[in-house]
Amino acid sequence: MTYWNLQNADGTIVLRLEENDATGAMSGTLASDGTTYTVQGGWSASGSVPGRLASVFALRGSDEADAPTWIAASGVMMGPGAAPQRITLSISIASGHDGSLRRKNAELTPLGGGATQKRKIVVISDVHIGMGTPTVWFQPSVHDAYLKGICDWIIANAADVQEVVLLGDFFDQWTVPCDEQPPSIEAIIKANPQIFGPTGYLCQVLDALGGNVTFGPGNHDMWASVNDMSFIVSAAGHSPKFFEGGTYRPPMPDGGQKNIALAHGHEYTMFNAVDDASPWGGLPVGHFVTRMVASQMKRTLKPGQTVADLAGQGSPDGLDYTSIVKGAWARGDVNVVEALLDSVAAQTGTPKDQMFVLADGSSVSLAQVQSQYQGLFSQWQAKEGGGTQGTINAWKSVLADAQGYYMGFFGQRKAFEQSAEVVVFGHTHIPQSGLETTMVNYANSGFECASIPDMPPGGTQATTFIVIDGSTLEVSVMQCAQNGTQIAPINVGPVQAVPVGIDDSCYVKIINNGAEDLILKDQTAAHGYFAAPLPATIPAGEFGLVWLQDYAGGAGSQGSVTYTPAGGGPDQVFTFTCPLLLIYSNACSGGTSFRTKSGSGVWGAPGVVAKSGHPFYVEFTVA
User: What is the DSSP string of 118-146?
Assistant: First the structure.
């Protein structure tokens, strides 16, 4: 037996076959545009009989769906049958789902030689794998096929995949009734061998990528550790890597500046961020909310039923948090956490004397929980700088939890904090791609545990994940459909970084093409505030990002930053202004050169200021 592993130039067609030299029989998979087909067929070698002047083969198979899509392929091979050097392939695809017939031709070359550079980063989040009990959002009988489909797609495209990042809430220790002890990550791993066993879906990905799978915790698996990754060991001995600190910066294919930042995103949400003041290992108030809902589900589910049978579960749990938050907002009530706990307890029928069993076996009461988090809003106000700025950003953190609102704002903030051009979050279970009128890109990977009634075609909550091209920074939201057999990019609309009011921010990029690192020396904000910490250093050959956000009102934004070369020399002063009133104009100065734009316009010629429009973008270059 020998094996064929070939693909076309852009990796959209991948052929993986086992072939028998003695009989010419072949079997394996043929992946085309995100769908993997199980195929079989045969081949014949040139010269094996008189008059046979070419090596040819034929395959047929399907995606094995209920309404199958059939594929037939034939090709001409160049090189030995055991190791073809090039294949000219003709494909026909007939869909049992929509009746379409497609044909395409392709040139394939071996994955081991002539293949494209590994440049794609796959981001998966919010799978929520637990113990398979009825209250857990991920139900193997429903969701296994989708996770397997994603893993199969990754394996089929392994020649082009640099890394897979599991971006939090891959495991779930929260969707557990109040009176039950949450499971350990080790227990969850051992309860799901079809995923985590040596030949499970994830371990097959580990082996296909040579171990290049990285995990970071979210809120539902916040207790996960690097030691837990040792319980996942593939057939070839690989285990996932582990990242701490909340943000992962994957290496770039060209080895240059790391300009992609990946984070679960819960750090910006008041109810689900790790709470350093919590006496229960950093547990946020959202943990206890989820536990109350799980207890209600345990009481009300019918025999044989799971939460996957109910609409609204997994997205996240069917309760209307938006109304709770908007009611508190309308009242000007900063005791929004108290309102949240009271409302959820009432909606779920949770008694006032309810006890919660924690992961270490200890118990706390609902009254203790209410007392512990009553000052949470004030804590966030202070953390966000106090005053008007702190109050506004604290409310944004509340709204980000309620319905994913303002996550675009925090995604952009993460980009400016990290000097990254692409940011991907999970957490909200809402796939998103793009920010309107900005110089960075934000996307959300969505989730993998939608309830059956919410799934297409009747529902709108599909299984999704993200693919980033590390060379071009193009971000694609991918949908996994038809029980995991169909994977293709989908269009999801962009969001606004500032969804309320007019954005009169200044967004600034400083490109350091000089020989010296630039060190932050000074900053001014005559109007507005710096929405993200300024880069302390802009290394030579890299860039830094600056965001001056305006306050509500008529002043707009106006400020400056000063950097000094590390080896000495004149200071570099960069000024920028985006006024609200039309009688004033946008303005900027600094750098060796600059270019600008405003709103959704295009970049102007060097040295030309886009005098009107908002927000205002400036790209300075220092030679």
Answer: P-EEEEE----B-S--TT-S--HHHHHHH
Three-class DSSP labels, 515-575: CCCEEEEEEEEEECEECCCCCCEECCCCEEEEEEECCCCCCCEEEEEEEEECCCCCCEEEE
- Domain assignment of residue 414, yes or no: no
Instruction: Give pLDDT tens digits for 443-461.
Output: 999 999 999 999 998 888 9
Compute how many other C-beta atoms are within 10 angstroms of the C-beta atom of residue 330: 8
Residue 584, both tokens: 């004033």
Domain membership flag for residue 553: yes
124 and 197 both lie in a single domain:
yes
User: Same structural domain for residues 162 and 129?
Assistant: yes
Are residues 512 and 478 part of one domain? no
Tell me whether strands 506-512 and 616-622 are parallel, antiparallel or unpaired: parallel
User: Does pLDDT of 48 surpass 90?
Assistant: no
Domain count within the chain:
4
Question: pTM of the full predicted structure?
Answer: 0.79
What range does the domain containing 99 cover? Answer: 2-110
Are residue 335 and residue 208 in the same domain, yes or no?
no
The phi, psi pair for 549, rounded to 5°, reads: -95, 135
Per the DSSP assignment, residues forming a β-bridge with 441 are 422
pLDDT value of residue 114: 38
Residue whose pair of structure tokens reads 């796959």 in the numeric block: 122
**Each residue's pLDDT tens digit, 107-129:** 998 875 433 457 899 999 999 99
The C-alpha R_g of the chain, in whole angstroms, comes to: 27
Q: Reduced to 3 states, what is the DSSP secondary structure of residue 466?
A: strand
